[in-house]
Amino acid sequence: MDYENLIFDLLDSEPSIFGGALIDSNGKLLFQTENWDLSQDLDQINSAIEESQKSDGKNPGSISIMKLTYMVIEFIPERIIATNVMKKGHIIIAPSKKATLVTFIDPNKGPRDVLFVIQNFARKL
Predict the structure, then answer these.
(1) What InterPro entries does the database record attribute to this sequence (predicted)?
(2) For the chain, does the N or the C end have fewer beta carbons within 10 angstroms?
(3) Of the candidates 121, 95, 92, 122, the residue with the CA atom closest to the CA atom of residue 12
(4) What is the pLDDT of residues 49-89, one digit of tens each?
(5) For 24-38, how does the pLDDT look when each residue is reduced to its tens digit (9 = 90+)?
(6) How far is CA 87 from CA 1, 18, 34, 51, 75, in A?
(7) What pLDDT, on a 0 to 100 scale, did the predictor assign at position 1?
(8) What is the Cα–Cα distance from 60 to 71, expressed in whole angstroms?
(9) Contact at 8 Å (CB) between 6 and 121?
């Protein structure tokens, strides 16, 4: 699968998605857009993904990416939704069996406005 094309197709299909990345099932970063660097935050993201897949997984409360903190508002196996309380954007993490799609959402939109599109693309993985 061409991960770069998948991410750019996602960005083209939904203008409210400002950045995207893919992490494989082993926690390795497969691809990320140039405007977004998850490399320093992979351990924290991978830990949240792992916890979300457990039946008794513990919500981390917040996730920090590129020195911005996002409060986790939904934490279920199908998705993690987090929002920055200073109105600097939202994060949606959509795990699948092969990889996890991580997206950065326009601060002026609600994360649920783009959730359906993101989950459809995550199913393609």
Answers:
(1) PFN_sf
(2) N
(3) 121
(4) 999 999 999 999 999 999 999 999 999 999 999 999 999 99
(5) 999 999 999 999 999
(6) 34, 14, 22, 26, 20
(7) 78
(8) 9
(9) yes
Alpha-carbon torsion angle 63, 31, 46, 109, nearest 10:
30
Three-state DSSP at 61 gives coil
Q: Give the tens place of pLDDT for each residue, 16-25.
A: 999 999 999 9
Token representation of residue 16: 């409210």
Tokens standing for residue 61? 């409360």
Q: Is 21 within 8 Å of 36 (Cβ atoms)?
A: yes
Exposed/middle/buried for residue 93 (C-beta within 10 Å: 0-12, 13-18, 19+)? buried
